[in-house]
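Build the 3D complex.
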Amino acid sequence: MINSSSDNVKKLNSINRRMFITGSLKFFIMIGIVSRLFFLQVKENKKYLTLSDKNRIREWKLAPVRGEFHDYFGNVIAGNFEAYQLHVIPEQVEDFRYVIYRLKDLLELSDNEFKKVLKKKNEIKPWETLIVSDNLSWQKFSKINNHLYDLNGVKPVISISRNYPFKENFTHLIGYVSQANQDDIESTQAIKKNFVPGLKVGKIGLEKTFEEKLIGTNDIERYEVNAYGRRISQLEFQKGEKGKTLRLTIDTEVQKLANELLKDKAGSICVMDIYTGAVIAMHSSPSFDPNLFVFGISQDDWQLIRNDPMKPLVNKTLQGNYSPGSTIKPIVALSALENGIVNTSFTVRCTGKTEMYGQTYHCWKKKGHGYVSLRNAMKQSCDTYFYEVARKLGVDKLSETAKKFGLGEKVFGDLFDIEKKGLIPNTQWKKNALGKGWLLGETIITGIGQGYIQTTPIQLCLMTAQIANGGYKIYPHLIVDDKVKDQPIDKFTPLYKNSKNIKIVQDAIFGSTNEVMGTSYRSRIDNPKYQFAGKTGTAQVKKITEEERELDLKTFQIPYEQRDHALYVAFGPYKNPRYALSVIVEHGGNGSTTAAPMATKLFKLIIDRHKIRESLGNKKYLEI
Amino acid sequence: MYQHTRLTTNRFGFFQKFRNFDYILLICILLLGFISLATMYSTDGGEVKFHTKSHFTKLAVFTLMMLVMSFINIKYWFSIGYLAYVAVVGLLVGTYLFGITSSGSQRWINLYFINLQPSELMKIFIIVCLAKFFHRMKLENVNSIYTILTSLIIILLPMGLVIVQPDLGTAVLIAISGIAVLWFAGINYKYFIYTILGFIISLPFVIAFLKPYQKLRVLTFLNPDKDPLGAGYQIIQSKIAVGSGGIFGKGFLKGTQSYLEFLPEKHTDFIFTLFSEEFGFVGSAILLVIYAIIIYRIVAIGASSRSYFAKIFCYSFGAAIFVFITINMSMVLGLLPIVGSPLPIMSYGGSSMLATMIGFGIVMSARVHNQQMIA
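Done.
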């Protein structure tokens, strides 16, 4: 008993000692757990709170609503429509293969389209939105909506998309939008800020230039989502702002006519208000349907556009460098008058050709014009006269006047990055650019708009406008609201030394259209309401050899690429001029037969529209 | 003599037993039960649904059972020690043979009225069994080879049966329960030190023998951010939930992590995460204090017990409960790799609660009969 009890005491001592050790250990471990809790919940609370919000709150940015383009009369020329789209975020789909094959069946995707979707999927990050289809028909869209229970992670989206109701009419002016690529995102801050997968941004034309104004801001939806990405409740909806709507100076009716006139031809038509500089129409032909690009152009369509020999992708109005041909003659005449080289009574005898510096220069009329004064020379477009005038004038003085009137520099400044400057040559230029001295023979052909000289159709239109308005500087523009603030102060500064000289040139151009023997006499309109004055031009695209000159082929007998460009510049109504235009038909043959008749049709419409345009402007003025 | 008179006068009358009750422990257990019910209600999304109802039923039945158990003399619990152990081993064998397979392991046995997880019961009955084994042993015999080998067999047999289920977590917890008894029984310190050293040295080899998913768990624990959507998901989400709770928590029924189903296993192993998210640091600390009081009371009851069996059982049970709590919390707080271990009383799961309540019942019985000697 004693033994046992002493053993008991020992046992008790042992167990109590060990209990004490255990108790202490428990105490420290407990402190450890509490401090861990403290660390997580108090010290690191912010971090985990953020993580928890990141878990539960998901933000959806919706594509912003793009600003529209309206013409002068408020017609929508680039608008928006609701497109039905299908988005999938691969990361949020449990069984991507199943879902995608299911979609393939439901949407009846072809193997090719399906491959494209899979390829796209491989290119994006798993948490980025994969756009399976960007423009579904309503039938398919509702079909998908009915099968949503089976398509976990698929999001049917109604998105606003671009629409160009006038199709090819405004393509070169407005441009088109298409899916933003990496370059777009990096180059434009506004795109980067508002980017959502499938965002369409301007690729060319005004759509590109005014991207920052047009793009608007995203709608932002914040949802509470559960672990499977299912939206539980909407926490917030931030309405984005629609992009700015831009009103253009363009008259759709005139633009449409321009398109019609140039149908199946390559060329350009621009029409401009000679006082305000407002561009009424600006068309480059052939054009293409910009709607094709909005959802990505198909390979076939693209090849068709790209390989068209008439080059629809080139905006000929701004990018086309053409020899102005005889349309430069008003400037040559004006320059000669201004510099006192010639006066109205100065005459030259035209025999059909003239020999200068051991070279023969031909007039377009083989038989010659006989003795011609400035007015007659302009009227009949006598080359010999202008050879002589140019020789006496010299290229440097000519280029000075030409530059004053807007040739040789960009008409729209920074508005279009594709715009070409053209080329107004002078002796200095040749030395710098080609490292050679100027030859006098080059001056002579410059006098009839051949040789180095190159102008764009819009430059010719501006030149004509500035002659028509009495010789005052104007700044062409396309956007109505920018009219006031963007116009530099030197607007309407006189470009002449003596306003009489302008009158002389205007009168000579009048003769060219409205008098017998005038080059565009056949295209005249006798009604003074529509009566206009214009100068034809025929620009050679290659040097005509002596044999060819002997053959004297008709236009249709010459291969297309070797035919002359047909040009026409004009302004009207003559009594009280208001509009100027330039017409260029590539390889159109002859200015007077191809280009001038278009001007007749244009002026009829332009002047009819003028009253409506004016009344709209006045009404607006009164309303303010 | 004084003792003798005490013994004879104390007849363990019914009202005397009531007076002997440890009310603090009882209140704490009931409080814990109430908290667990509220938390379960929250996991059901603020509605009384299956989990809440089922948890409530179990809680009520097992608490009642605990109270009934406490009126039964501690002598009786001593006497059934081996029998219970053998019975549970039998159940484990039964589980191995005809068990119900669920999520990859065969842990449950269908007893017609209840699906039981015998491995959970083993956590308690191994203590009862070993406590009985050491009860009458002289201290000098404790460190004999025979004793050590026998006790090791008693521990390893059920462990092996649980590992094959496979359920490493519960096997480890059973081992810990057993080792706790060995520790209090007075097995030489050096054995513990050798075991720990041996374990550390053999750890790389043990890992090599682990199943791929277990290996992944260990690796994930070491670097949960490696695969945040895969293996690391549970632990990352759990830490986010706890951390975002802050000082006062997000509020009852407002735990977004669990409500939006970011939390895995929120009814069972990760119940503390949900509680902690909704009640914050303060709530978690209060819960810990309740657990601490419970453990303290268990130990105190052990200290005041006259019989060695009651003492060693209480101490070991207290230590085991403490370890269960610690392991579960450390796991959800990212201090330990994920092992399946429920939080006593709080977690959903009948077997675990049954086992814990049996433990409490025996402790309570020890308290009520604290003057009872066991020959």
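Chain B touches chain A through 43 residues (CB under 8 Å).
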